[in-house]
Amino acid sequence: MAEAEITVEFREKTRQHTAKALRRNGRVPAIFYAHDEDSVPLSVGAKALERIVHSEINILNVIFPDGKVRKSILREIQQDPVTDTVIHVDILGIKLTEKIRLTIPIYLIGAPVGVKEGGILEHLLREVEVEGLPLDIPEHIEVNVSDLEIGDVITLERVSIDKVKIITEIHHAVANVIHPKVVKEVVEEIEEEVEEEAAAEEEGKGEGKGEGKPGKTES
């Protein structure tokens, strides 16, 4: 499992240390907590945090102002809905001898037989929740799809990781190979629905134009 270091600063609850003020100074508010410990408000460098969030790093060596280093993981990441930048993060202190749960990505490897025959590969499940000791959890899972023929599906039941338990429902489909005809039919259905909606909207506008103030009648 990949590790990284990140330096944190203690965060005081003052006007100068509000979330907005921190972000203006290139820092992100954070909370550190661990089992049987009080939570500690912190701040971390925005650039360093962004690099970690967008990587496959799972374990953090959090360096506190007093020089103490704690093994940790990012438990919850809040991102701006518009810019996608990290605006708050929860950091959970862990012990290497205690199991943890993490969500890790799934990568597909190999060229499916069905694709060579004209089928289309669909990657249906892109991440999975697992449980295990921190150092036993891999950075990602690789699923070999080479044997998939047109119509075949591979589920989590066929995926295993040494020393690690998969928490996500094992009947979830990870990938399949479908016939191009299926895709064409779906596209045609969508196009028909769009055309029907457009026609209905146009008809509604036409009826609206016909409505107006009643004309004067001669007596």
Number of helices: 4
Rg: 27 Å
**Shape label:** flat
Helix content: 10-25%
Q: What structural class do the secondary elements suggest?
A: alpha+beta
Looking at CATH, the homologous superfamily of the largest domain is Ribosomal Protein L25, Chain P
What does this structure look like?
Helices cover 22% and strands 37% of the residues. A hairpin with a 6-residue loop joins strand 2 and strand 3. With 219 residues, it is an alpha+beta fold.
Secondary-structure map:
Layout: E1 3-10, H1 19-24, E2 27-33, E3 40-45, H2 46-53, E4 59-63, E5 69-79, E6 86-93, E7 100-109, H3 113-116, E8 120-123, E9 127-132, E10 141-144, E11 153-155, E12 165-166, E13 173-178, H4 180-210
Parallel strand pairs: 1-4, 2-6, 7-10
Antiparallel strand pairs: 1-3, 2-3, 4-5, 5-6, 7-9, 8-13, 9-12, 11-13
Name a few traits of the molecule.
219 residues; alpha+beta; Ribosomal Protein L25, Chain P; 2 domains; six-stranded mixed β-barrel; four-stranded mixed sheet; 22% helix
In short:
With 219 residues, the chain is α+β, with helices and mostly antiparallel strands. It has helices at residues 19-24, 46-53, 113-116, 180-210, and strands at residues 3-10, 27-33, 40-45, 59-63, 69-79, 86-93, 100-109, 120-123, 127-132, 141-144, 153-155, 165-166, 173-178.
